[in-house]
Amino acid sequence: AQSVTQLGSHVSVSEGALVLLRCNYSSSVPPYLFWYVQYPNQGLQLLLKYTSAATLVKGINGFEAEFKKSETSFHLTKPSAHMSDAAEYFCAVTEGGGSYIPTFGRGTSLIVHP
Amino acid sequence: NAGVTQTPKFRILKIGQSMTLQCAQDMNHNYMYWYRQDPGMGLKLIYYSVGAGITDKGEVPNGYNVSRSTTEDFPLRLELAAPSQTSVYFCASSYILTDTQYFGPGTRLTVL
To answer: Does B33 contact A101 at a Cβ distance shorter than 8 Å?
Structure first.
């Protein structure tokens, strides 16, 4: 069975600081992993996804995530936060066999202080 | 290419009323999904469809019904609305299960 855990419902950073949003997953087979972003009053949109190619995945707006199989993690990072990064971020997992509806984490709200 | 569209954007219902949330996609995706989003709870899957004529229950299907007569449309029906159904509802679609999901803008529903 697949599951995903996002540590921290809220993360607060100063503008220009490193952003680190944590995601751990469980999956019995190699997973497909996603990060989505939701800006206020909007639907979710894809930030990046891991599909078993390179373990370091680059996404939009300067975000990247690294797949670490030994740690079952897929943490999202950005070297320097911008005010426009304030949003809700969701990690999602689906098993590589293609038989399971993707499971979403509970989300992490990123707050960026000036 | 409009992507995934949802109507209405907002709706207020009285307890016991019924309504249909509309969802359409123009990307010829096989899979379509309905989620509800409550504060701090992430996304809960209500129903999904793997193609026209085929639907299945998700994690929280009680109080809802769906149908999928065409590839493009996937309406969600609320029968006998209850305050517990106050939420933001998102429709999404994808080509296959391991592919990116594309989300609509959401419908904010309040049941009073």
So the answer is: yes
